[in-house]
Specification:
heterodimer; A: alpha/beta; six-stranded mixed sheet; four-stranded antiparallel sheet; 23% strand; B: 573 residues; 21 helices
Chain lengths: 248, 573
């Protein structure tokens, strides 16, 4: 059978204190669109950061495309990380660079150093960057300063950066919690469209269930660092939801 | 154009409207080109390629001098002298910084737009406001050492000479900065009090000063750092303290003794930098100052360290005045008044003979070249050293490190590099530019080059630290985002760290160029040429009419540099 995109094996993670994630096992296959939901503090962001390799688990193994991240050298880790593109809640763009450089930043894992340096002076692969911006609907902003864009447009640039990276899987950390409902819907539509047409995997943390239901095909509930449920959207029940968000 | 995109499948393409590639001829490139031309011009002024610049015979002396650094004179009696010289320098700095704050507060209120608007709410009172601001330009343009030389002629070698030498130019700069802080502080609470009929001054004290206080305090502490350096420099004109002793032992070729003083100066400067840096960090604004400007910072919390610092200041200030035996009355004796009147009378009208004017025009260009070379040297050096001197660069998890497991070797190596570069920068800025100039004169023939290198090295110490603090203040999350998408260390540097810091670097560089233009005087007085040399000669021969002319040239030069710097900063923002 084909390799799962992500695989977590009995993963426990703690930052100085009680575990944030306890004994989480999980498998996500190519083309799945998975929503991770749960109350704040449940460990959603930690789980996401384990998947993109910015954190290493205290116990257990995280495998991306079959490779155990903890066992990789720095260079091999970068190779694996290229296959995972993350969209952050706060975008994390370099806002005094032109949009094109922020989009091209997605290519850094593929480019040799000389090319990335040259591109800052003489932009490289302009057509590809334009194409990525076109996909998110703001091709005309190519040469503008990122800081001069609105919040919604910056988020699109962040998405274009991930498109330029062309990873196997998209991770998104609460991408819609800072935007108005209309922008939220546009962004979720865009993510779904991209994943469907390009057959990418999507793993997204959300704190509302509506979009999880309408835009994903599998829902994971996380509570107190443990997986409370892991079901196809069609099987989600109100009891599960009530139980997930119940206040102690 | 499309080379290696490698999208296996793409979305159905919508017609992409073409965003035109912007023209290459943008302000950044134009200013960059101008800067290169300016440096090239300055190099020809320094005589590069025209005449011999290096004196190879001098290396023996350098070696002898450096050897002496390892065995400074540590006899108890001599150490006692060193301690008392250090205390004198510290006391000058404390008194100077204290008066600076007083003058700054007074001038700051008067130079703020909000004060005049509160006073005359119905009329737009721009005239008095602009008048005060214009009046601050002249004391600000003239360097401490010239003020010092001026007061020597009136007060002799009285402690007040050095204190006023520091306090007057510093006070003018501080007043400008304080005024800007007050003007940028939110006005609504003040307006509410004024609308209820409160008189302007109490309304200021209740509604404008409290929110502005952290910024004001932070800048005042920063000024104290600057005052320590100035106090050492002022020693050179005979005011006593470490600078004076350094010069004396240098002239007597007693390098071991000179080194004792140098080490003491290094320790004093290092300590003050460290404490002031810590305090400003506690106040939540570490990297926001250059000697001429500031940025608004978020309001900090109450802090015991800050209270301790204020308490220590409250004790130190009277102690310093007592230690130096300052007689403020000296300023108001009939003799001082007569001498002051004489100086003013003797300065008019300024000498305008064509010979002097030609001489001064030439010296002005030399001074300009000197400042350009110095800032170019400091800028390039700062860019190279600031990254290794930042705690978040080489260390495990820093900008360059994309691995996750910290290796012991990397940890040790990076700490070593960090300590070394920081110590180097500290040495550069702790030793006054004029002392650097004396040392460069061992191996270089007198001229612009030793002066430029001396000023450049000193500026490198200051600029490198500012740059390193900027790097340490970087938001790490966007950098981490680049790492998680697979970028290598140098790529994170090029696409994350440099673009975010470069605008600050350029702004700091331009500000420091303004400071350099004023500081040319410091190296000028030890023979590096330019207007500083001429000024000193005129002052020591009591040629006040000549001094007035030279000052006009000097002020015109510094104002031009300020203007070019401000225009450049605006253009490339």
């Amino acid at each position: 059978m084909t390799e799962p995109v992500f695989e977590l094996d009995n993963v426990t993670h703690r930052f100085h204190g009680p575990p944030v994630l306890s004994d989480v096992s999980l498998r996500i296959d190519t083309g799945e669109r998975v929503a991770l939901v749960g109350p704040s503090g449940a460990g959603k962001s930690t789980l996401l950061n384990l998947l993109n390799g910015s954190l290493s688990p205290t116990q257990g193994a995280v495998r991306v495309l079959g490779r155990d991240l903890a066992a990789l050298s720095a260079q091999a880790l970068r190779h694996a990380q290229r296959q995972v593109g993350t969209v952050y809640q706060q975008f994390y763009l370099v806002d005094n660079l032109a949009v094109i450089h922020n989009v091209n930043a997605g290519r850094l894992g593929h480019w040799p150093l000389w090319k990335s340096l040259l591109s800052l002076v003489w932009p490289q692969e302009v057509e590809a960057a334009r194409q990525a911006l076109n996909q998110v609907g703001i091709p005309e902003k190519l040469y503008e300063r990122t800081a001069s864009l609105s919040g919604g447009q910056q988020q699109r640039v962040a998405l274009a950066r991930v498109l330029a990276q062309n990873p196997v899987a998209f991770l998104a950390d609460e991408p819609i919690s800072n935007v108005d409902p209309e922008r939220a819907r546009e962004l979720m539509d865009l993510l779904r469209e991209v994943c469907q047409t390009m057959h990418k995997t999507l793993f997204i943390t959300l704190h509302t269930l509506d979009f999880a239901r309408s835009h994903c095909d599998r829902i994971l509930g996380l509570r107190h660092g443990r997986i409370a449920f892991d079901v196809p959207v069609s099987q989600l029940t109100t009891t599960m939801v009530d139980e997930l968000y119940r206040v102690n | 154009m499309e080379q290696t995109l490698g999208h296996e499948s793409t979305l159905p393409t919508r017609a992409a409207p073409h965003a035109a590639r912007p023209a290459r001829l943008n302000p950044r490139w134009v200013w960059g080109g101008l800067a290169l031309l300016a440096v090239a011009w300055a190099l020809t002024q320094a005589g590069l390629g025209e005449r011999a610049l290096v004196n190879p015979g001098g290396w023996v002396l350098v070696e002898e001098f450096l050897r002496a650094g390892l065995r400074p004179d540590l006899h108890p009696e001599f150490l006692r002298l060193t301690v008392s010289a250090s205390l004198t320098t510290l006391a000058y700095a404390v008194c100077g910084a204290f008066l600076n704050v007083l003058l700054g507060l007074l001038g700051g209120v008067l130079a703020s737009e909000v004060w005049w608007q509160s006073l005359f709410p119905r009329r737009a009172a721009r005239a008095p406001w602009l008048a005060v601001r214009a009046a601050l330009v002249i004391p600000r343009s003239i360097h401490e050492i010239i003020w010092g030389l001026f007061f020597v002629n009136i007060l002799g070698l009285d402690p007040l000479t050095a204190i006023l030498g520091i306090a007057i130019p510093f006070g003018a700069i501080t007043a400008k900065v304080f005024a800007e802080i007050l003007d940028e502080t939110p006005r609504e609470p003040l307006q509410a009090l004024l609308n209820n009929g409160a008189p302007p001054l109490p309304a200021f004290l209740y509604a404008l000063f409290p929110p502005a206080l952290p910024n004001l305090l932070s800048y005042a502490f920063y000024r104290f750092e600057c005052a320590i350096r100035s106090a050492a420099v002022l020693g050179l004109i005979g005011a006593g303290g470490l600078g004076y002793e350094i010069l004396l032992s240098f002239q007597a070729l007693r390098y071991e003794q000179m080194w004792t003083f140098l080490w003491a100066l290094l320790a004093l400067t290092g300590l003050v930098d460290l404490l002031s840096g810590l305090l400003r960090r506690r106040l939540g604004m570490e990297t926001r100052y250059t000697c001429n400007d500031w940025e608004a910072a978020p309001a900090p919390r109450r802090d015991p360290a800050l209270r301790a610092a204020l308490l220590v200041s409250a004790i130190l200030v009277p102690l310093a005045f007592i230690y130096l035996r300052v007689e403020v009355g000296e300023l108001f004796t009939p003799r001082a008044a007569r001498l002051f009147g004489d100086v003013v009378r003797d300065s008019f009208p300024p000498t305008l003979n064509p010979e002097l004017l030609t001489h001064l025009s030439h010296a002005t260009l030399q001074t300009l070249a000197l400042s350009i070379l110095a800032i170019a040297f400091a800028g390039v050096g700062g860019l190279l050293l600031a990254f290794p001197a930042s705690a978040n660069f080489l260390r495990p998890g820093g900008i360059l490190d994309t691995g996750r497991r910290p290796s012991r070797l990397r940890q040790t190596l990076s700490l070593g590099v960090l300590a070394f570069t920081r110590a180097f920068l500290l040495i550069c800025r702790a030793i006054p530019a004029s002392v650097w100039a004396l040392l460069f004169l061992f191996v270089l023939f007198p001229g612009l080059l030793p002066g430029a290198l001396a000023l450049g090295l000193y500026t490198l110490g200051v600029l490198g630290r500012l740059m390193a603090e900027t790097i340490e203040g970087l938001d790490e999350r966007p950098l981490r985002a680049l790492k998680t998408l697979g970028a290598s260390g140098p790529q994170v540097l090029a696409y994350g760290a440099l673009p975010r810091t470069a605008p600050h670097f350029i702004a700091y560089g331009l500000y420091r160029w303004e400071v350099c233009a004023r500081e040319t005087v410091v190296v000028g007085v030890v023979g590096a040429g330019g207007l500083g040399r001429i000024l000193q000669e005129q002052l020591s021969s009591f040629d006040y009419r000549g001094v007035a002319t030279t000052l006009i040239f000097f002020i015109a030069l510094t104002l031009t540099v300020d203007l070019v710097s401000a225009t450049a900063r605006k253009a490339i923002r």
